[in-house]
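Lab manual, section 2.4: Encoding a predicted structure.

Procedure: take the sequence of the chain (712 residues), apply the prediction step described in section 2.3, and record the output as structure tokens. A sample record is shown.
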Amino acid sequence: MRSIIIRIFMSLMVSTALLGQSGFYGWNQRTHSELTWYTLETEHFNIHYHNGIEEIARKGALIAEQIYPTILQQIEVEPWGKTDITFTMEDEILNGFAMPSDQIFIWVSQNDVAGHFGGSEKWLRLVLPHEFQHVAQFNAQKTWLGIWGMIGIPGWWMEGMAEYNTEIWRVGRSDNSFKIHTYQNMVEKIEAHHMGYAKVLYLAWKYGDSTLVKIGHDRVYLDKKKKKWPIWYDFDEAFKKATHKSVKAFDEEWRRVINTYYYTLKGQKEGVDEVGEPMVVKGFKNIFGLSYAPDSSALAVVGRQSKNQYYTSLYVMTTDTNHTIKRIHYGTFNNQPAWSPNGKQIVVSELHRGAHGSLLNDLRIVDRDGKHKRWLTKNLRALHPLFGPDSETVYCVAHPTGQTSNIYRINTRTNKIERVTNFSGDVQILRPSLSPNHKQLAISIQDTTGFTDIAVVNTDGSGYRKLINDYAEDLMPVWTADGTGVIFTSYRNSTPNLYQIGLAATDSIVQMTDVAEAVYSLERIPKSDRILATTLGDVDTVRMVSIAPDRQITPTPIQINERWSAWRTNRPTPELAAIDYTKPADIIGIHPYHAFRTFRTLTWFVIPDDLGLTGLYIGTDALGKHMVTSVANVKWNGDLLGGAASYSNLNYWPVLGIFAQYNLGYTQHVIAKGSIYEAVNGGGIAAGVPLNSGKSLFSNHFISALFQAHTR
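Recorded output:
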């Protein structure tokens, strides 16, 4: 019994320690000792940030303090103390996460959140309230057992509560995902964020926000009569008490609503096969980017050929009757590949290890036959490349030093880099497209207003102007063959469809398609005026469509009973107000980061058995740079039976660790009459350094050293 308990606790010690170090190191496996950290204090938050991003930290403090009272009011939770929020620009990772220990970690300055995922909101406004709602929800559902008392809570509930209370239902969150899974009859396999958002939306619409509060506040108490000592959270039981319906019965009802809505929508719109000439690209399970060679003899494809393929790859597929497919490179790529005008090279934006091991995107040029490849940029955080009129010029979007993206021009022969545009502030740019006369670029831009619009700018950086300026997400511009207009994808009617607008100020938007699924503009087919578009991945084959540039359609209004559709627009009460960016947060002070002043318990546990008590403790600082773990076995009379302790330090270039153990390590010796166990006591120090040359994201090494001393 005792040995089993020890093994369990040692496993918990390791797994929880890994959880605690799922600060930024848990994702990027780098300590980033080159950074200097600071703390900005407000009434309810400690904002931790490194050198170079103080402006973002101040904006984060402003957002956090303005959303604080509303989020607590939404779920009726009492204040619990300060929450630690840590910002970093170490990597191009579009993510943030929260922990039950009142910690939030967010990667800032992410260009590609604009439009599809973020809609008309900025990344910081989206991610910070979402993660803080997690912290509030953790506190609302907390029990005496800490994180162990919340093990049974489904992921969809936690994610759905965060999205319902802080976001707006939109194409990128989570409408498109539901179309894909509904039309594939796979709704039950949808990811927790999307599933949770739809379930909580429907739950709130049908039963009211008060039901969400009741579910979140239910507990299993040791003293049931007096409701004292909350020890466990039983989600299924809480759900049934609040709704008088089991989770299983609710899931079935919700599934019927989802299917009814999306199939009714599909039945009233035109089909993808009606909007143009279908172009089935066979041989691929997934396609993430596709581009025709200038002579149309081949396609450059970023994708996977099978669901079991680990790496995304870059392929060249001939367009003759043989459709020969050759893999010329593999990696993690950002969106579209682009051909050189002479058809000999392809440029891609590829994720790799940059300076100090940061995960970021740079441009790589690959020969058509795959024999030669080289990096075109270094630490530029470069995205959305396209060649200029000759094979020696590449344009791209980049944000090398902060939250501002600009257009850059690169000479492929000399590697000289020039900044073309001069935007400032919180600006993101997507998918530049070169005009037929090579004098202008059409771009999708999210400026400081948050609107994602289509604009044009001269290739020398002058003449910037918006063609559209409204709330809708307008993306993926493609020039018409005569250069008099731009065809683009817009989410303005809650579905990605193709639209067109001329360059004159008096020109109005013309809708070209009206499908229920989605149509995305990719590029103009070479030596043609037709537009290559891709569709929603809702069938096994990847579908492309060739669409005439003069196509027009009058959209069909949707007729559907509110019983099946009203849940999509339901809003919480109270609803988060718009952020007033002119009202800065009241800052108590800014000072260098002090790790041990932010130290807190990540988890602890005590369990009795026939011999005594076994206890576990794990503590960490706000950044997850320092961690202490310990486990001890104590007899009922107070004598120590055994114990172990460790300390890890992620503050320097090598990962450092110190550990010690007493009567917890054993060596088994087999003898004639059975086995005997010899106690191994002692400790040691360890150091390790992760290495990657930056050439391939998947070529990783770890050099470690260990010194330990034991008594037997």
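Check your result against the sample. Confidence is low (pLDDT under 50) at residues 10-20.
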